[in-house]
Design goal:
Length: 66
């Protein structure tokens, strides 16, 4: 997850998707949780190709199914 570390430390620009995710999480309820899930997947897919991110995406999708 070096990309996320670089974003957190300011070495890399913060993607606009992070602000969208924060806005989605600020609202409670089932429809918003679904929206948050979709936005999280969009963010994870943005960094696809990175083995650590792919692992995180797979774990996230498994958790969603449960």
């Amino acid at each position: 997850m070096p990309e996320l570390i670089n974003i957190a430390t300011g070495r890399q620009a913060r993607p606009l998707e992070l602000d969208k995710i924060a806005a989605v999480f600020s609202i409670a309820g089932e429809p918003q949780e679904s929206a948050a899930d979709r936005e999280t997947l969009v963010l994870l897919k943005r960094f696809s190709g990175n083995p650590a991110v792919e692992k995180a995406r797979a774990e996230f999708e498994r958790a969603r199914e449960i």
